[in-house]
Specification:
This protein is α+β, with helices and mostly antiparallel strands and about 475 residues long. The protein is built from 16 helices and 19 strands. Helix 1 packs antiparallel against helix 3, helix 8 crosses helix 10 and helix 13 packs antiparallel against helix 14.
């Protein structure tokens, strides 16, 4: 590879000049501005600043960026709000950041067809604020909805609090426009509810973490706003295992709450300090459940009875303000845990009957490795978030050992490495453990069909990773 007088590969210096010419006013090269793109909310940090960031404002901007990067053989890292938790959006030396954050328009809302067409940079919560006036909403509801983009939600197939009843992001996407690595624009999916023409490439792109193409337009499946009262049940338990058992019994009894969230003692301690509210006076674990729709009160009373029968100190309210206050407790969990220091937020999903066993394993790992691991859970779908808290930058080896054991246990009980955060750089070391070599090879070859030169988000998801937490 040829280099310039300063020893910098000419391909990388050439792509910046090319982008500046193609996209005047859209390209940022100041090192201080580029520093933020080395990290996301995962705590992972790249080895240095990227070459530049392109602040795309249109599909044409994205296409020009991809054409330039492809011509020079330079990697592209697509970036939304930077709220990811697996290092999937971090960029390093020799890479171009393609930011779609400024592409935040609502292009169309069709109440008749119950769909919206939006750009990827719009924030999840902002979209629903705009839809509310028309009696519609987009169901995906990650805890980060105020700071995460729709494009990022789709790229990671984000989940959140409402998945058990309303599905994950994949269930709420009809079609996408995607720019390929060489700048070509394709449309995948269907704007109709039904559509079985060819392979479902839309479902393939959802959750692909920027490795197959750049999402530039999203046609979303909307729902009418849920009418009627909402019942909120707050149930405290003497142990998190008992609370997990109660949550599983709700589902076994045939009920499907809109929200069912579980927090252990460590998490409640953090939220209590963070909010100034005592959440531990009634027990060591808190189960929050919301039921909605025409049968909300009937379902809520059934959940209340099941929680009480399982040993919970349970209360029910239909007051909307009190319900919102209780849900705010759950949404405070992550920022509250962050006050402990640096955090590694994990994301395993297991069958509901295995939740108690996973909580017990987390406690055992805490004791054996002398760690602090607050754990919250989307108890309606078995998605747990053990969060390893430690001091300093860079994940200690002891944390990776404990996390590795947790991943192995989740797989042993029939679970998965990630319910909603994705793989990124954090979990690529363990991907083969779940997929097996044949499927892992097939997935790598699918990526190569979309991105033959391997320039889209390289080093993420499929790359070999001999050291836990390694970026290179």
């Amino acid at each position: 590879m040829s280099v310039d007088a300063d020893g910098v590969p000419t391909a990388t210096t050439g792509v910046v000049a090319d982008l500046l010419e193609r996209l005047p006013g859209r390209v940022r090269t100041c090192p201080a501005e580029l520093e933020q793109y080395r990290r996301d909310r995962s705590g992972q940090v790249s080895g240095g600043v990227p070459l530049c960031v392109v602040e795309a404002r249109s599909i044409a901007d994205v296409q020009e960026t991809c054409r330039a990067a492809s011509a020079h053989g330079v990697p592209i890292v697509t970036r939304g709000a930077g709220s990811g938790l697996v290092g999937g959006g971090i960029a390093g030396p020799g890479e171009v950041v393609l930011s779609t954050r400024a592409m935040d328009r609502v292009l169309q809302v069709s109440p008749q067809n119950r769909l919206a067409v939006v750009e990827p940079g719009i924030l999840n919560a902002e979209l629903n604020r705009r839809l509310a006036g028309q009696g519609l909403w987009w169901a995906p509801d990650p805890a980060s909805r105020e700071i995460s983009t729709v494009g990022g939600n789709i790229a990671t197939d984000a989940g959140g609090l409402l998945c058990a009843k309303y599905g994950v992001t994949r269930d709420a996407v009809l079609s996408l426009k995607v720019v390929l690595a060489d700048g070509r624009l394709i449309g995948v999916g269907h704007d109709t509810v039904k559509g079985v023409t060819g392979l479902d490439l839309c479902a393939l792109v959802v959750g692909s973490e920027g490795t197959l193409g750049v999402i530039v337009e999203c046609t979303l499946k909307l729902r009418p706003l849920v009418r009627g009262a909402v019942a909120t049940i707050s149930a405290s338990f003497p142990s998190v295992e008992r609370a997990a058992g109660a949550a599983a019994s709700v589902v076994a009894a045939g009920w499907t709450p809109a929200v069912m969230e579980l927090m252990d003692r460590r998490t409640l301690e953090c939220i209590s300090r963070y909010s100034g509210t005592d959440l531990l006076s009634r027990g060591d674990a808190l189960l929050l459940v919301q039921t909605d729709g025409a049968a909300a009160l009937e379902e809520g009373e059934a959940v209340l009875a099941l929680a009480t029968a399982a040993g919970g100190d349970a209360e029910l309210t239909t007051d909307p303000d009190e319900g919102a206050r209780l849900m705010a407790v759950r949404r405070q969990a992550f920022p509250a845990i962050e006050t402990l220091g640096t955090v590694l937020v994990e994301d395993v999903a297991v069958p509901l009957e295995a939740m108690s066993a996973v909580f017990a394993r987390v406690r055992e790992l805490e004791e054996r490795y002398d760690l602090v691991i607050p754990t919250a859970c989307h108890a309606g779908d078995g998605n747990l978030h053990p969060t390893f808290a430690f001091q300093g930058e860079g994940v200690p080896e002891v944390v990776w050992r404990a996390a590795g054991e947790l991943f192995e246990f989740a797989l042993e009980v029939g679970g998965t490495l990630s319910g909603e955060h994705g793989i990124g750089v954090l979990k690529r070391r363990w991907l083969g453990d779940e997929l097996g070599e044949d499927q892992l090879d097939l997935q790598r070859r699918i990526k190569a069909v979309f991105d033959p030169a391997g320039i889209l988000n390289p080093g993420k998801v499929f790359a070999p990773n001999p050291r836990p937490g390694g970026i290179a």
